[in-house]
Description:
Blueprint: H1 3-11, E1 18-19, E2 22-28, E3 34-40, H2 42-45, H3 50-63, E4 73-76, E5 82-87, E6 91-93, H4 94-100, H5 110-127, E7 141-143, H6 177-180, H7 187-201, H8 209-218, H9 230-267, H10 285-290, H11 295-298, H12 300-305, H13 319-348, H14 361-386, H15 390-430, H16 434-447, H17 451-476
Antiparallel strand pairs: 1-2, 2-3, 3-5, 4-5, 6-7
Helix pairs in contact: 5-7, 5-9, 7-8, 8-9, 13-14, 13-15, 14-15
Amino acid sequence: MNFExxxxxxxxxxxxxxxxxGALSKMRSADRKFVNVIEVSQxxxxxxxxxxxxxxxxxxxxxxxxxxxxxxxxxxxxKGTKAAQMGQGSILTVKQLVTDNPAVVATKDFCENMVSxxxxxxxxxxxxxxxxxxxxxxxxxxxxxxxxxxxxxxxSDFSGMNNRELLWKGHEQFVAPEVLDGEDGTEASDVYSIxxxxxxxxxxxxxxxxxxxxxxxxxxxxxxxxxxxxxxxxAAISKRRIGMRTILAAAAVxxxxxxxxxxxxxxxxQQTEMEYIAPGPKEDGDxxxxxxxxxxxxxxxxxxxxxxxxxxxxxxxxxxxxxAYREHQTKAEDIFxxxxxxxxxxxxxxLYGKSRKTMTEADFIRLSSTVxxxxxxxxxxxxxxxxxxxxxxxxxxSNIIDQVTxxxxxxxxxxxxxxxxxxxxxxxxxxxxxxxxAIKAAANAASKKPExxxxxxxxxxxxxxxxxxxxxxxxRR
Length: 477
């Protein structure tokens, strides 16, 4: 049995996991390849206005291009049911993935990439007048072994449908209260639904501290109390993550200092508390010497105590430790500058390429957002690698970005000047200057001999020939 036959035995004619508007399964396409389909529930097919809205959304899904959008087309299965065909590959819902493998939530960057991906694609949809409205884990898809969320079936596309509540039947907890009350929904409605989706992701794991306050605000009952856009919510998450990393870095520094103090306290001799005893009768020097005073024995304790390091006071670094710390800090900053300069040059160059001339304003805004995210991510990674504080890393990164931007701006201006000079030179070569034409005509005229001079030469030649003929006749006579 080959792979295709195994798939047919597994998926042929059987309904798979539930996926918002129907059952997710596979079927053979016209070229006999297995493709992903969602067989639409008959209840929705029978609802007035649904089928027409589904056809329109399928056409729009092919025109709107985004890495987090999943295009589809409406087809009819072998059983005669209506289905949404999404192409080849292994596609599943987030709920199916988390149910089959709950540990995936603890995978590094999985939840972070899922949330940021949803907020980015939601910003794109809202800019195009579309609201997803229901981010149920049954309505958010992804490919197996990927953490990139994929969306289709945007609820605002079905606004003309009667009984629109059939779309999110069983998923009401992921829909904003105002939408459940019959309103069309806004960008704040999408923010509410994304907040509920984040709660689902962390249902089996501890939600990070910086996310709890954000999710609480995003899921507020009143739309005015929420973040008003997905971009605003994404900015709040980024800000809180940077703040939390700063706190953790500060705590790490305090911990290092405490360990250093502990080591210092361990290796440094400590003063022993002495019990106070009232002095006895004072004896003069002669009496002491008379009892056999030995200088080496009696003063030996002074030599031992003289070895104590008095360079540093308790709780402070000694000059030697401070020097070592500064050398380490200097090396770390040098590594950060060199590495971040290379990455900033590579990332920012995308904004200055030749493709910028043909780029629309919306494309440039999206590219700028992507570039900013990559710069922040590179900064955070290098800050952790070099052991610098987040505040110091942010300051160094800001200075480097300014330097790289100024250099790229200057380079772009120079290239533009060269292009303008080249165009001007081409225009001069195509159009002859009247002054040059006059100069050329004068030169040609100067190179030609005057007509009177030419006639004089011809007359002299003719007279000379006549004299020769006359002499010849005289000689014959």
